[in-house]
Design a protein that fits this description.
The chain is α+β, with helices and mostly antiparallel strands. It has 16 helices and 15 strands. Strand 3 and strand 4 form a beta hairpin. Helix 3 crosses helix 4 and helix 5 packs antiparallel against helix 6.
């Protein structure tokens, strides 16, 4: 059995260009060593490989049955099959050379090659990504993207116990560090033997390109600093974002904010996120014009979006950077007690910006999303954060991806929504169990609006979740789309 599986995996590597014929014997022997084998009988005929995850699942089954793997947990499975794929994954220098060759022809060809490579090495686990539930919802602000993230496996209790007993390591310093490339991993850190990163230079600073293993959208890439240094939004940030889209004009690139609550999950390592997807935010139009004195070549305006966004357009990167920095500096120090906006309280800063860069024809474009992370007694998780009435759908922080118009919702919602649909159809009391009870107030608001049937209930629930996402974005906006909110936004614009 194992001989057949090794042969099948080697053929997979040959077919997908991970190895060539000169590597066949070497890779076969490396796999034999990994499985603790001394003998091998090659197949007399070429084996047509199955989908990669099926081959790896059978290899894991063999490893468990024969003592090659000690524990059958999700974490141990991932550590083992990544080690297997590491045998087939070319050296970093080879991957970087191919990327550079492709780039000479076309930046798009280079990223297409690298994205496909990240999938065929199983760094991006395509079989898991396909489990994510995705749909769109039409709103007043365009077509919003919604995804229930099912690709991150839940932790096995045995892994949690083992992790608690494992001594913490400072290497790599975080999940983004360049030292992850080829790292074997352990119970508290994912294996990365099949991980390869591409060096970039942004404004004369060293960065790397990689793809997110969870690809929430097409070609979801991460650009991270060579050094493990904290995230910061400053003038240099705008320059780097625009320099990236200069080099990769088919991609968008943005940054999470640099403060807790309104920032991302990894504030300890300077990084950006982008990719080859056109978000609803990019399709949103100017709602009003903004005149920036001193920047005659920069077209500015407020964007029709649930959050508070100033868009800049221009042909020269330096001019956009200067204009963006001017707005950032003004916003950092801006307070408007009437609108409950305070630049700081007790010396703690609150104002920052979530920036997004893209190329639109011959124009460079920067969207500057105004953020504020102040908390109140009524809103301890943040005043400009999803409000409590929506926590049953979205409780987590609104980061870059959500800002651009894609909701990443927790896996629990899949079952909860299925149970909710069943309960509505059968006329059950929605408050009969805790999971559904949290959705009861929300559901009772919209149920009367529809003639609900078994055929349309699922699409109705999806639509209403999309509406909640829009409301959540409005909660995160520092200026509300009300007469008072618009007036307050204009006061800041006038201060520019």
């Amino acid at each position: 059995m194992i001989n057949h599986l090794i042969n099948e995996l080697v053929n997979y590597g040959l077919k997908n260009g991970l190895i060539d014929l000169a590597d066949e014997v070497y890779v076969t022997n490396s796999l034999l060593e990994l499985f603790g084998l001394n003998d091998y009988v090659a197949s007399e005929e070429d084996v047509e490989p199955r989908k990669l995850h099926l081959i790896l699942e059978d290899m894991i089954a063999y490893a468990i049955a024969n003592g090659v793997m000690k524990d059958d947990t999700i974490a141990q499975r991932d550590l083992f099959d990544t080690k297997v794929m590491g045998v087939l994954t070319p050296a970093p220098s080879t991957v970087r050379r191919k990327f550079a060759e492709k780039y000479e022809n076309s930046p798009k060809h280079a990223t297409q090659f690298y994205y496909q490579f990240s999938q065929i090495t199983n760094y991006i686990r395509v079989d898991r990504i396909e489990k994510d539930e995705k749909w769109t919802t039409e709103t007043d602000f365009g077509t919003m993207d919604i995804t229930i993230n099912l690709s991150k496996p839940e932790k096995d209790p045995r892994d949690i116990i083992k992790a608690g007993m494992t001594k913490k390591s400072g290497y790599p310093a975080c999940l983004l560090c360049r030292e992850n490339e080829g790292y074997a991993g352990h119970i508290m850190h994912p294996a990365r033997q099949n991980h390869r990163i591409i060096p970039l230079t942004l404004c004369e600073e060293d960065y790397y390109l990689q793809y997110s293993p969870y690809v929430y959208y097409n070609e979801h890439c991460i650009i991270f600093n060579y050094n493990h240094i904290p995230m910061v939004i400053n003038k240099a940030t705008f320059g780097k974002l625009l320099d990236f889209v200069r080099q990769f004009p088919h991609y968008t690139l943005g940054s999470n904010a640099d403060l807790p609550i309104v920032g991302g999950s990894i504030l300890s390592h300077d990084h950006f996120q982008g990719g080859g997807y056109v978000f609803a935010m990019a399709k949103a139009t100017y709602e009003s014009e903004v005149v920036l004195d001193g920047y005659p070549n920069v077209h500015a305006g407020i964007v029709k979006w649930p959050m508070s966004v100033i868009r800049l357009q221009g042909r020269e990167i330096n001019e956009l950077v200067d204009a963006a920095n001017h707005i950032l500096e003004k916003w950092r120090g801006y307070s408007d007690p009437e609108a409950y906006i305070f630049s700081e309280t007790d010396g703690v800063p609150h104002n920052t910006i979530t920036p997004i860069a893209r190329k639109r024809g011959d124009l460079y474009e920067l969207d500057l999303v105004l953020r504020n992370n102040i908390t109140t007694e009524e809103c301890p998780m943040g005043l400009y954060h999803p409000h409590a009435q929506y926590h049953h759908i979205k409780k987590e922080n609104i980061g870059l991806i959500e800002v651009m118009g894609l909701a990443v919702l927790p896996a629990r919602l899949k079952k909860e929504m299925s149970d909710l649909e069943r309960a509505i159809l059968s006329g059950e009391d929605l408050r009969q169990n805790e999971a559904m009870a949290s959705h009861a107030d929300w559901a009772e608001e919209w149920i009367p609006k529809y003639d609900i049937t078994s055929e349309n209930i699922h699409s109705i629930v999806q639509k209403e979740i999309g509406i909640v996402f829009t409301k959540v974005l409005e909660d995160a906006g520092v200026y509300k789309r009300t007469p008072d909110g618009i007036a307050a936004f204009n006061r800041f614009i006038d201060d520019l």
